[in-house]
Amino acid sequence: MTLAAAPVPLVDLEANYARLKPRVDARLATALAHGRFVLGPEVAELEAELARRAGVAHAVGVASGTDALMIAMRAEGIGPGNAVFVPAFSFVATAGAVVLAGATPVFCDVDPATFHLDPDDLERRAAALPASLRPRAVVPVDLFGLPADYGPMRAFAGRHGLLVLADAAQSFGAARDGRPVGALADVTAVSFYPTKPLGAFGDGGAILTDDADRAARFRALRAHGANSAGVTERVGTNSRLDTLQAAVLLAKLEAFDADLARRAGIAARYDAAFAGHPGGQARPPGATSTHAVYVVRSDVRDRIRVALSAEGIATRIYYEAPLHLLPALRRYGAGEGSLPVSEDLCRSLLALPIYPELDDATVDRIADAVLRAAAGRARRVTPPPSAGSRRRSSAPC
Description:
The protein is an alpha/beta fold.
């Protein structure tokens, strides 16, 4: 019987803060001292830096990634009677924001290799759309930090007069064919949930665009609909990115490039360990990922998960169910069997720990545990003495 090694969380936010503490604390102290906690100077500074990195003219900070999607749709006048095409294999917010805007999500299947919205299925869903629904937007999702292929999406949108709204909740900092996330779609929605590669100390998000008129509408809608002159021209919401979160994000941006490089190194180490085994997400040439999530794919996924848990290694299922089978969204879909690739992925994918503070020895330990479990050779272990004090981690969305 082997004594278990130290527990490994899925994401270690405590270690992340400990590493970045001096710069984060300094930024927070400055914000606390000036007291401008709503749309303070750090928000404008962050917006400028986000726009610069994304290669666009405008970034608008909002309260969450979900709000970023919803505000972007409301700014286009998308609402009742309108259809928005979304992939069924995604986090619930992708479709939830459509419903919150008053529109109807139309679920599409995904590519079995990249897990991105399948252009062929998109065409099929568009052709079968009832006359009662007017198509207005398509929302590709940069799943797990890998940018989707926006060429087919833009071509489709151009033929039908639709908005291309990128759900880049996990992918800020990535690129495709030399263009950064933010410059790939008409509008891009970003999340700063704490477990994202660029994560705040709470909820936060941003909307990126090159269009000045759109940016003005986003800014109005995030502040109860008031325009730059303070006149309320439309009903908006309260979705301002607060100053303290902007301060944290500015501090984290100083280490962001190095963090992305470390995530890429961990992903490459996993890739090497799993070479020759049916794997996770395919990464096309010309695309870089933030590696927000690293998944393996297996017919014995649940066995692997149980075995890793016994060795103190946290994992997570991505996703427990496709969007069209969630109770809150079933009425918009065609039921079980209607989107087979998305349904299969929910049965076979498992996310492994990946974060900048993870050392190579631990990555190798995780990979070895996966391979042993897949082969039915799980190690017998006893809990470590400190199991009750394992670090807390949040589950990324």
